[in-house]
Amino acid sequence: MRDIDVDDRRVRVEFTPTFLGCPALDVMRDAMADSIRALGAEPEIQVLLDDSWSTDRITAAGREKLRASGFAPPSPRAETGAPTLVQLQSNAHRCPYCSSTETRLENIFGPTPCRSLRYCTSCKQPFEQFKTI
């Protein structure tokens, strides 16, 4: 989210997608509009493409929410620098289910361009790792 403005019964939301060609863009826009309508307001959803998105925009609370939902959040760039293939292949990514770092890269390409598929050798759970962008 870039900005949210509430004016009487209208809610305006501005957001920037993770990728310009994100295949989930319409789904995200519709889900936000449906949630706003469910609260009794009229939605106005604006997709802003004037600024590139970075995983550094995810707050600590947002990273924890991703983890609680079964996704391994991306590491902040300040910790890792620009992502490399070696980093993606390392076992430094923490499992969102058991917190083990005994994980391995299964596929660098997940269901969307911003995620990779990983496997935890401790709890035997597959999970998706958000890439650092």
Write the layout of secondary structure elements.
Elements: E1 3-7, E2 10-15, H1 25-38, E3 42-47, H2 60-68, E4 71-72, H3 77-80, H4 85-89, E5 103-107, E6 115-120, E7 126-130
Parallel strand pairs: 2-3, 4-7
Antiparallel strand pairs: 1-2, 5-6, 6-7
Explain what this protein looks like in three dimensions:
This protein is of the alpha/beta class and about 130 residues long. It folds into two domains: about 5-45; about 60-130, no CATH class. Helix content is about 25%, strand content about 25%. The mean pLDDT is about 85.
- Beta strand %: 25-35%
Radius of gyration, CA atoms, in whole angstroms? 17 Å
Which word captures the global form?
elongated
Assign a percent range to the helix content: 10-25%
Gap between N and C termini, in Å?
16 Å
Low-confidence stretches: none
Question: What's the helix-strand series?
Answer: EEHEHEHHEEE
Structural class: alpha/beta
Number of helices: 4
Largest sheet: 4 strands, mixed
- Order of adjacent strands in the largest pleated sheet: 4-7-6-5
**For the residues shown, what is the average pLDDT?**
84
Number of domains: 2
Number of beta-strand segments: 7
